[in-house]
């Protein structure tokens, strides 16, 4: 995915220069060469903040890909993970900052694949409610980055209490096609572009089940699950035609087809550039959505919520589709009625890609704790899953599902230094982050009140600058 | 205590009350804020705790002995503020939600006890995680008075009410403002007029006599007299101060404050008033304009100022999330190691989900504590009950050992192995 996307990014940056000419191509002759519009018109402007080369020693390390190192060391410099292992075996420069991690744990930063920070920010008033464009079953034309308020105080809580270093913000699930998601670095910015994870692929939020039929049942449909599927298929049929039209144009030139923002997004999915994150709870419906992906030749990268993933864990593993799940949410709607505490470990044990997600500005502060509960439930059910292995639910698998695992999601040399130092075992309720680095920059330090971000909204309010 | 047991599956919950039971050898937590007793013993008989102590505790002849070495023995968790048993499925699913009555002309008179369904899934799910009692509150419908709450047990039987009409719940914060017509002034006027009418035994005159029925006013009379507790839902610091001022006109109000997100800012006032609070421990975002100062240190700071605090979920998951109350309490202990935060001790955190909520509904010494004479609600845990990896392994309610089976465990067992078998999954029971 990385190579594909980087290729696109390079291609589009050059081609963006011609974008302004698009409006003038209507009269181009049949032999005009193809022109391309930018596929990245709101590019990331994220720039890592400076850090100092730092060595953490004597800590327990979960490398994020299943490995555990006792009494280990992590060395970060130039924004990257430089070395992971034992300090004695590392070639280290003189005089680097060293943190004694005795009794502490080091992990990759947590990545939440399902957040509404910024598009449903605090305070949660109607004026801030920007996550669902509930006006049409297909709003694939909206990009949720254009809803994100960077001053949502929730971002800082996710960093300081949750050790969350990256997150995907998704449109809501009112629509069959909710729009594009965006992946962010959890670093405050003045606008969303300052926060965008560089060159992360876009996601498309899709939804099945109760929500679309509830929202549109009284507005001309879909009013049933069968119509959810029918309307979704109709959109893919349109997208296929659009894709063919543009493929032909891009190969041979001629008159540029009319652009359609909705179909641009769907075409991106068919071309493998945009990743599908499908809100779906029930096993029967997830099975149908996997079949739909076969019908139209795309891939479901992840099911979001996937409350009944445990019933079809084999099918999900076979499809290579991730399941982003809660540890123990249940019964809050009919389609979550069959939730079980072992969902995450059962998906993992079947060889699938299991992810602990939040979909919640409070839950995002405790994804390590939610994982701990799920892990314990799995062990009580007889599964043998190590602590280090379960961390794949928090960083590596989330990164894979967002198409950024080549750059983050594990403690491996060369990767972004997105790192959390915990003041104890992160699966214990008594543990909190001690320090959090993003790209090697120390952005949270429990011992230093200056390293605790305060959003504009909180300045001058009661409790400003307080611990949260 | 004779009980009708629910469903065949629950019949394995054979009453053990016929003879004494002694649970021995574990780390025993009394629940009153005192430190755990190593190698502790609790003896229960006929639904009550008859003896508690260290290894020297006398065990009656003929007692069934349950050895629990390496385990933790505690009173059952008390859900401090919940709607367990009122809702099978959230989200307004018809027939599955009894928590409010917004089409009813009644408000304060609504007695939540009639709405409790002990066979609702959240009851079993809570029980299986060591929650043995629950304070249950009605949800305000059209009026600031939500109605009369109760205390229930979570046992597998059809006799759930431990204490009916334990308190009245009134909304005097942002929600009350909205219900009363748009301002706090309206909410307080509505409240004081109703209490005056109840006190004086008259219907209040005014623009809309239909605000109150005689039944509502009759229900408020014991509140005015201080004979029934008044739970007041407020969050903003000034709302808390104003709520405390209500006792100037109604001096006998026996108040408990619920929510109290900005309580730390007026902790001394709350402590001086001697009013206990039920608060959410992890609220730390300015999610509304009545909790701009929310911090996880709220409870620790109030406790330090001498406020009596219980821990609960209040705004979300009230219908089914009580099993995570212990996780929430554990997080308060975690704060002790974060500079600048104010946490609470383990002993205090555990009391905040057992004996403190019991006291807030007037049931101190009766539930939420392992003391002689208390109801025999006992849980044996695999380990520290505030820790995420721990589970309830044995649960007694009123001395009756309970089934820990739930819909969830049945589904787990059905799908533990999903490879195709001789018959479809529907045949695996």
From TrEMBL, chain A:
<dbReference type="InterPro" id="IPR011059">
    <property type="entry name" value="Metal-dep_hydrolase_composite"/>
</dbReference>
<keyword id="KW-0732">Signal</keyword>
<dbReference type="GO" id="GO:0016810">
    <property type="term" value="F:hydrolase activity, acting on carbon-nitrogen (but not peptide) bonds"/>
</dbReference>
<dbReference type="InterPro" id="IPR006680">
    <property type="entry name" value="Amidohydro-rel"/>
</dbReference>
<dbReference type="InterPro" id="IPR032466">
    <property type="entry name" value="Metal_Hydrolase"/>
</dbReference>
<dbReference type="InterPro" id="IPR051781">
    <property type="entry name" value="Metallo-dep_Hydrolase"/>
</dbReference>
<protein>
    <submittedName>
        <fullName>Imidazolonepropionase-like amidohydrolase</fullName>
    </submittedName>
</protein>
<feature type="signal peptide">
    <location>
        <begin position="1"/>
        <end position="18"/>
    </location>
</feature>
<feature type="region of interest" description="Disordered">
    <location>
        <begin position="25"/>
        <end position="44"/>
    </location>
</feature>
<keyword id="KW-0378">Hydrolase</keyword>
<dbReference type="Pfam" id="PF01979">
    <property type="entry name" value="Amidohydro_1"/>
</dbReference>
<feature type="domain" description="Amidohydrolase-related">
    <location>
        <begin position="370"/>
        <end position="440"/>
    </location>
</feature>
From TrEMBL, chain B:
<dbReference type="GO" id="GO:0016810">
    <property type="term" value="F:hydrolase activity, acting on carbon-nitrogen (but not peptide) bonds"/>
</dbReference>
<dbReference type="Pfam" id="PF07969">
    <property type="entry name" value="Amidohydro_3"/>
</dbReference>
<keyword id="KW-0378">Hydrolase</keyword>
<protein>
    <submittedName>
        <fullName>Imidazolonepropionase-like amidohydrolase</fullName>
    </submittedName>
</protein>
<dbReference type="InterPro" id="IPR051781">
    <property type="entry name" value="Metallo-dep_Hydrolase"/>
</dbReference>
<feature type="signal peptide">
    <location>
        <begin position="1"/>
        <end position="18"/>
    </location>
</feature>
<dbReference type="InterPro" id="IPR032466">
    <property type="entry name" value="Metal_Hydrolase"/>
</dbReference>
<keyword id="KW-0732">Signal</keyword>
<dbReference type="InterPro" id="IPR013108">
    <property type="entry name" value="Amidohydro_3"/>
</dbReference>
<feature type="domain" description="Amidohydrolase 3">
    <location>
        <begin position="296"/>
        <end position="400"/>
    </location>
</feature>
<dbReference type="InterPro" id="IPR011059">
    <property type="entry name" value="Metal-dep_hydrolase_composite"/>
</dbReference>
